[in-house]
Amino acid sequence: MAEDSDLERTEPASPKRLEQAREEGDVPRSRELSTCTILLAAGSALWMMGDGLVRHLTHSLVTGLSLERALIYDHNLLFTKIASSLMDVLMAFAPVAVLLLIVALGSPLLIGGWLFSAKALTPNFSRMNPISGLGNMISARAGVELLKAIFKTILVGSVALIVIMGQKNAIFGLPQESLTQGIAHVGHMMGVCFLAIVGALVLIAAIDAPYQMWHYANKLKMTHQEVVQESKEANGNPQIKAKIRQQQREMARRRMMSEIPTADVVVTNPTHFAVALKYTEGGMGAPKVVAKGADEVAAKIRELAKEHRVPLLEAPPLARALYKHTDLGDEIPETLYSAVAEVLAYVFQLRTFRERGGLRPHEPNNLYVPPELDPNNQAGARI
């Protein structure tokens, strides 16, 4: 079979497919979003802490350029002073560095989340195939990346040009300012330009992040056949499972039918339901249901009962209640003890009549079934 084309991949990726891709280190990523957040954090940090940072660096520079006579002749003191100056510079940049580290670690949470995959570290020699590399260079994704790079260059360049042109008069006026004012003014202009460029990158990230999510979801789409095959692997072949369930039902039905000759009585609806009961004095706490069925199964139960001379008793409400509220092998509900006791008393009397003769017992005709147990009678039922 030919390889499925992208047009045939119409089904969204299943959770298993997404998990497999994640295990292989394949998650959606947006470099533009990560770059934008880091630059935005750096610009904001320098904007807020720039004055303190400049003062700290100025103090370190002045201190570092001030040499005492003793430092010239004692190398140990000189090295100590240099180390102290370097430590001061590092401490000055420490808040900014910590902020950038936090942002760099947290930016993956915006799209894709944190991920460590050993499979991604495994060498993949297929990536060294020049033919595959050439195919990637002329792919649709490469075209999108090229267009994105061109758009980013034009946008960032335009923003930078607009900001610089807006600061033109201020730039030409710098020679007329004092050194301190000029340095502060240059720092302010560089900050404004930097934040304006980062703002342009925000627009690019706002476009790139949804595109990367869409591309990732589209790349992992599955064909209908893949969805069916995955379902078979996860849950088993539905046809085989249906066959097994059918066989299990047949086996359970045969076991149930084999219990009917040992039953004491079969209570019928008379046509829709049939429930076979059995009671062994001293061996059971209460009568048990050994067989039950509806429609065709009920007809088969009645047929086997007649064949093995098991008494049949028409008691529709009681049959419906037993069928609905009991399972095979269950004892009857306590609320039906009285009605079933009358039925069994009749059955035992009928058995005595068949063995010894005498007066034939009358079938019970006033069996009470609580209304909450009879599906068809909410006001109580008497027959």
Primary descriptors:
alpha+beta; 6 strands; 383 residues; 14 helices
Describe the structure in brief.
The protein has 383 residues and is α+β, with helices and mostly antiparallel strands. It is 63% helix and 6% strand.
Structure overview:
This protein is an alpha+beta fold. The chain has helices at 15-23, 31-65, 69-73, 75-106, 118-121, 130-137, 140-166, 168-172, 179-219, 224-235, 238-259, 296-307, 316-325, 337-356; strands at 265-268, 273-278, 288-294, 312-314, 368-369, 381-382. It has a four-stranded mixed beta sheet with strand order 3-2-1-4, sandwiched between helices. Helix 2 (31-65) runs antiparallel to helix 4 (75-106) and helix 7 packs antiparallel against helix 9 (179-219). It starts with 14 loop residues before the first helix and ends with a strand.
